[in-house]
Amino acid sequence: MTDKAIPDIIVGRLPMYLRSLQRMAREGRQVTSSQEIGERLRISAAQIRKDLSQFGEFGKQGTGYNIPYLTGEIQKILHVDHDWDMVVVGAGELGTAVARYKGFTNRGFKVKMVFDSDPDKIGLQVGEFVVQDSAQMVETIQVAGIKIAMVAVPAPQAQEVANQLVKAGIRAILNYAPISLNVPSNVSVQQIDPSIHLQRMTYYIK
Amino acid sequence: MTDKAIPDIIVGRLPMYLRSLQRMAREGRQVTSSQEIGERLRISAAQIRKDLSQFGEFGKQGTGYNIPYLTGEIQKILHVDHDWDMVVVGAGELGTAVARYKGFTNRGFKVKMVFDSDPDKIGLQVGEFVVQDSAQMVETIQVAGIKIAMVAVPAPQAQEVANQLVKAGIRAILNYAPISLNVPSNVSVQQIDPSIHLQRMTYYIK
């Protein structure tokens, strides 16, 4: 399996397939089809079969996909067959909400630390976390070996925070700030950009 | 142009092309190519040309795309050549952060109202908004003719809020709650799901 050859656009659809499968499992379902996943996601069944075929053979012609099996296989492909520890940078309203977010359960992620540079926030309790001083952030992340960070600081500070996270060995940054971050090519960045989602919907409002 | 025939997966890429073009414009650029957009987004140039060709002819062979022109055309296709008013439901940490979010400027959206059902929150000032009582939400939204809502309430309340928004005439819901919403087929829902973005990045961490 040559991971390098698989386009990122295909990798990017796997989490959506995984979410659909996990929903079906919660509904008590055991078997599904590319048709059904496709209808739920408004993607063609052919596209789903083609995407999955890049990674292996997961279903039998005519019998569909076993939901627990395919779920486990996609979790392995995406490296979320175990939980990743994460840090949140920024203990403002957004960072606090992100640190307390209930949606990471069973998705492969767990917030472990929250950092801020504001002396008024350092030491405060945020959910189950005490806000730590971001002056020690690089060393603390390195010691803990954490590889994933969520950035919820104001836009003007986001690039400097990203630079520090890269220095700390972070390999994936989920950026909530409305600014594009520059990082080395061995670090991934995804942006939470509500406008992207909204524009996809306004297309359908006549 | 038969909009119905265009797959949602293609519609979903247009906002990303638009964001790239707007970034290039801010960098002072006038002309770009499908190759360059593709490199920025990790999508093939052929895919971008194929996607855009679904909507018309926007560039000349060999001379690339005029950035202001293509920006304007995609804004028209996505119906964001004007600003849409929006409501935010939920004035907790997340709703407050969403209502104050600075990233909607020049993207086609403007928050106009914030609602909550909590008597302790109603009447509070959130940025430039006073939190309104969600008991009057349906009527208030109908009178204002607002079509887009962002839902930032706890998961157990999100479906009931969505039901009310549908009754109010909302046509597009951006859901921040970690739960899947059921709405009629003439209403669009998109979910802000950080796990989807994170899983796309963990694929690349060996």
Summarize the structure.
Two copies of one chain form a homodimer. Helix content of chain A is 40%, strand content 19%.
Supply the number of helical segments of chain A: 9
Distance between the termini of chain A: 45 Å
CATH architecture of the largest domain in chain A: 3-Layer(aba) Sandwich
CATH superfamily of the largest domain in chain A: NAD(P)-binding Rossmann-like Domain
Query: What is the spatial order of strands in the main beta sheet of chain A?
Result: 8-5-4-9-10-11
Order of helices and strands of chain A: HHEHHEEHEHEEEEHEHEEH
CATH topology of the largest domain in chain A: Rossmann fold
Instruction: Report the helical percentage of chain A.
Output: 40-55%
Structural class of chain A: alpha/beta
Provide the number of structural domains of chain A.
Answer: 2
Work out the radius of gyration of chain A. Answer: 19 Å
Question: Major β-sheet of chain A, in short?
Answer: 6 strands, parallel
Overall pLDDT confidence of chain A: 95
Strand content of chain A is: 15-25%
| Chains forming the largest contact | A-B, 63 and 63 residues
Strands of chain A, total number: 11
Give a written overview of the molecule.
The structure is a homodimer. Chain A is α/β, with parallel strands linked by helices. The first copy, chain A, folds into two domains: about 5-75, Orthogonal Bundle (Arc Repressor Mutant, subunit A), CATH 1.10.10.10; about 85-195, Rossmann fold (3-Layer(aba) Sandwich), CATH 3.40.50.720. Helices cover about 40% and strands about 20% of the residues of chain A. Chain A has nine helices and eleven strands. In chain A, the strands form three sheets. A six-stranded parallel beta sheet of chain A has the order 8-5-4-9-10-11, sandwiched between helices. Chain A has a three-stranded antiparallel beta sheet with strand order 1-3-2. In chain A, helix 3 (about 35-40) crosses helix 4 (about 45-55). Chain A is elongated. The N and C termini of chain A lie far apart (about 45 Å). Chains A and B meet through helix 1, helix 2, helix 6, strand 11 and helix 9 of A and helix 1, helix 2, helix 6, strand 11 and helix 9 of B.
